[in-house]
Amino acid sequence: MGSSGQQVSWKLADHPTLPKGKTLALIVLDGWGEYKPDEYNCIHVAQTPTMDSLKQGAPEKWRLIRAHGKAVGLPTEDDMGNSEVGHNALGAGRIFAQGAKLVDIALASGKIYEGEGFKYISECFEKGTLHLIGLLSDGGVHSRLDQLQLLLKGASERGAKRIRVHILTDGRDVLDGSSVGFVETLESDLAKLRENGVDARIASGGGRMYVTMDRYENDWDVVKRGWDAQVRGEAPHKFTNAVEAVKKLRENANDQYLPPFVIVDENEKAVGPIEDGDAVVTFNFRADRMVMLAKALEHQDFDKFDRVKVPKIRYAGMLQYDGELKLPGHYLVSPPEIDRTSGEYLVHNGVRTFACRPPSDDPQVKGGLMKLVSHSIHIL
Ligand SMILES: O=C(O)[C@H](O)COP(=O)(O)O
């Protein structure tokens, strides 16, 4: 069965030019591409004799494929590619809307508010606080500021009376230093919500590479630093204003590595630790750097660090981040369902495959290009 529910044949026609019985290699070069040949293009400027000889040796066989924008299921042509969308798109044979686009569609249609995930968290709006945790930038790789803005508006219009945003500054998918502008924009949005009677504030923050957004279980201390600030309201730096916090902490660190901070009131009390009865949404659509926090928020038997306090909350991810682990159990938008990948076709047609990939790419690759199928050998 295909994703449309129709019976689809697995049979592949013989390729018009590729000979049968010969070995074929598919090699993915991460970060390699062609663009305007100017002095700022490092691949153009570098000595690349092997690639040059491949290109010049058989120009009739040389093809360029797009790895960004609409060709890989992103919302616009201005969206840069990244490893997750590339791994999902390669070998799918069709264009699937990726997380960023699925969230855009769900927000534009309002369907995000009709889904099970939003209903689940909104049960807390009457008595509890809505916490939004995620990357604050317009990079479009893990999250987008305009999606956060729409979610803030939509949630407050649907009953959220007290909102706390826990920000992670970027400087990796966007320019270093841009964090200040993003925090100013968010602060002005929150001020407008306050004018309309919603108690909305930034509660904590830190740089994405030092606070919360680790990946592949590389360093749980990163997640712990975020947990202490977001859940316990504890951090080495305390400020009464988030713009001031980011400006001050940038004196000794760039956006990616800002140390954790909490926003406190005039009595030095944190304004927004996560408490029993609260709702939490992690608003990144991309999975890899949110899975670890999702585990800490959701798993009863979590043992990667001492959480000290484990509030009884209702938690939803922007998307479900791991389909196999069903993590998190509640989410606002369903992730792309990528089926019938090229790897599956090869197996169904009796073509033996050998796949070799870095273990770090596992969560992304297993959904797309090299979806694990029986009879294919995978080496990590
Ligand atoms: O998470 C990161 O490090 C970047 O935002 C994207 O990196 P990648 O797409 O190359 O994994």
Give a brief description:
With about 375 residues, this protein is of the alpha/beta class. It has helices spanning about 40-45, 50-55, 85-90, 100-110, 115-120, 145-155, 180-195, 220-230, 240-250, 290-300, 340-350, 360-365; strands spanning about 130-135, 160-170, 200-205, 235-240, 260-265, 280, 315-320, 330-335, 355, 375-380. Helix 6 runs parallel beside helix 7 (about 180-195).
Instruction: Fill in the CATH topology of the largest domain.
Output: 2,3-Bisphosphoglycerate-independent phosphoglycerate mutase, substrate-binding domain
Question: Could you give a short account of the major beta sheet?
Answer: 8 strands, mixed
* Strand coverage percent: 5-15%
The total of helices stands at 12
Low confidence ranges = 372-376
List the bound ligands: 3-phosphoglyceric acid
H-E order: HHHHHEHEHEHEHEEHEEHEHE
Helix fraction, binned, reads 25-40%
Number of domains: 2
Question: What's the end-to-end separation, in Å?
Answer: 30 Å
The CATH architecture name of the largest domain reads 3-Layer(aba) Sandwich
Radius of gyration: 23 Å
Relevant CATH superfamily of the largest domain: BPG-independent phosphoglycerate mutase, domain B
- Main sheet: strand order: 4-5-3-2-1-6-7-8
What structural class do you assign from the helix and strand content?
alpha/beta
Strand segment count: 10
- Write down the overall geometry: globular
Overall mean pLDDT stands at 92
Q: Output the CATH class name of the largest domain.
A: Alpha Beta
